[in-house]
Amino acid sequence: METTTRHEVEVDTRIGAAYADFLAATHDAAKGTDPKTLPEWDAFLAADTDYTGWNRYYAVPGGHIHSDMNCSTCNRVNSQTGQWTRTTFAWITDLSGLTADDVIAAYGPTLCTVCFPNAPVETTAKVKIADPVQEALTARNERKIAEAQARYEAAITPELDALVVAFHVASEAHNAAGAPGLGSDLYKTARNAYAALADKMPKGFNWSRRVKDLGLR
User: pTM for this one?
Assistant: First the structure.
């Protein structure tokens, strides 16, 4: 099999991630929402403008590999319920740019014969993939966690740490004294320490976590 060019893989990986965000948004949308009205659909289309025509390949849950998300065997009306079923696709980006012959040689009967008329049909083999929607939700959650961690780490400075420590010490002293009333000096010290921290603390910063990370609790 020929080696896929790095450019094709990189571009489709990025575009495929935008498609995954669209799948996650579709999952979260209210029932009856037209998926193509979601901003994530527009974001996917915008990302896809970098595509210049190379071959692409997609797998469907419990099914076959396709070369086109508009294949006639996908996105069909259920004959029993009359409801439209939108197929969800998993992009196989490591195959992006390969010829159909390369993919047929590697995957044979797992290919959709509508997309690949020359694919062998002597067996009913199917490709096994994880559910694309669940994969998209997992990827989105992992990305949000990573982004939150990056924001947390970027916010930490010696000045901020000093304010965190000052508030923690003042708060502990106040609590150790039995949490005296609003007029007490200990309360005022703790309140002022928090006000100083809040003034310099980025929105959403988890100061309590920083206290633990500094080994103070």
Answer: 0.66
